[in-house]
Amino acid sequence: MARFTVNAFICSLLTYGFAQAQSSYSGSADGLTTVAASTATGTVATGSGTQTSFRAIFTVPASADQGANLLPTTQDPEAVDPQKVCPGYMASNVVRSEVGFSATLSLAGPACNVYGTDIETLNLTVAYQTAHRLAVNISPANITTSNMTQYILSDELVQQPNWGNDPTFSFTVLRKSNGDVLFDTRGTKLVFENQFIEFVSALPENYNLYGLGERIHGLRLGNNFTATTYAADVGDPIDLGIYGSHPFYLDTRYYEIDSHTGDMTYYSGNNSAANGSYTSMSH
Ligand SMILES: *[C@@H]1O[C@H](CO)[C@@H](O)[C@H](O)[C@H]1NC(C)=O
Ligand SMILES: *[C@@H]1O[C@H](CO)[C@@H](O)[C@H](O)[C@H]1NC(C)=O
Ligand SMILES: *[C@@H]1O[C@H](CO)[C@@H](O)[C@H](O)[C@H]1NC(C)=O
Ligand SMILES: *[C@@H]1O[C@H](CO)[C@@H](O)[C@H](O)[C@H]1NC(C)=O
Ligand SMILES: *[C@@H]1O[C@H](CO)[C@@H](O)[C@H](O)[C@H]1NC(C)=O
Ligand SMILES: *[C@@H]1O[C@H](CO)[C@@H](O)[C@H](O)[C@H]1NC(C)=O
């Protein structure tokens, strides 16, 4: 079981940056070359006269962050500016409702097709869902089964969450492809107070959980790990939002694949078999 407790006053900090180990080896430009065998292992004499052997542990080289030099269109003086050449839309069929309105938006001139193909007709709905939340939805008016999934995910593709009230409210989230239970609050109570929130979700045996704040600790949080995250830290560098509150975790699960049936079985072991076939999924 993982218990997530968030005290809104003292522990809203969660940051996600991982210090990268410094590598003293230089790799090739693709950043993936490992060190030459001759320098990868060796022995050193320690002060007490004993010898300690070592071998290089592969680590991501500093050059790994040298990506392609991409030029965004907003910074490219030769790129076409859509604001200068596109026609915009005109609203018609405006229908007011108690909480907003809907309308049809039609291209107000010849399509510009600058970075794709202009959609001729759009549906617009605007609605106040609460006093503080306005929902604005713009989507193509003419969608058929051939292209619906580009714009709208149907229930067939997105499994609906299951919920129940026995003995109190709980819900589960399943992975559609294999029925794996990804989130499960059954048998636990939701606590929702103005300065305290607690919810509980089940985890599989020997789970692999990552994230939930920056700290000096192995990347994998380990089982039964308890930690407090605080909202206070050193001042932020300007424009670089280092510290913030982003409660986020990644749960990676490994499955052994049956070579005959293709069935996937959750794998809780620490070591993989050399001849085994595995796959992983994260959420
Ligand atoms: C767009 O609105 C029209 C008119 O209300 C409706 O007939 C049509 O089904 C809507 N399109 C979509 C994709 O919802
Ligand atoms: C919607 O798509 C159908 C199928 O291609 C087409 O016959 C129809 O004219 C289109 N309607 C609009 C309003 O674009
Ligand atoms: C979806 O496909 C239909 C033809 O099946 C086409 O008429 C319509 O314009 C397409 N809609 C969008 C938004 O691409
Ligand atoms: C988990 O940690 C708590 C607190 O350190 C400890 O009391 C408990 O025995 C641990 N449970 C397991 C299964 O290791
Ligand atoms: C995996 O490692 C953990 C921690 O080292 C240990 O508690 C657990 O028993 C191991 N599981 C197996 C299946 O070997
Ligand atoms: C993998 O190797 C182990 C040990 O040699 C053997 O018991 C097992 O049957 C092998 N599994 C497969 C799928 O070949």
Automatic annotation (TrEMBL):
Keywords from the UniProt entry: Signal
Please name the GO terms that the record assigns under molecular function. Answer: carbohydrate binding; hydrolase activity, hydrolyzing O-glycosyl compounds
One GO biological process this protein is involved in is: carbohydrate metabolic process
Q: Tell me where the signal peptide lies.
A: 1-21
Q: Extract the InterPro entries matched here.
A: Gal_mutarotase_sf_dom
Q: Which SUPFAM superfamilies match?
A: Galactose mutarotase-like (SSF74650)
Q: Which residues form a coiled coil?
A: none
Could you tell me which PANTHER family the record lists for this protein? ALPHA-GLUCOSIDASE, P-TYPE DOMAIN-CONTAINING PROTEIN
> What is this protein's name?
Uncharacterized protein
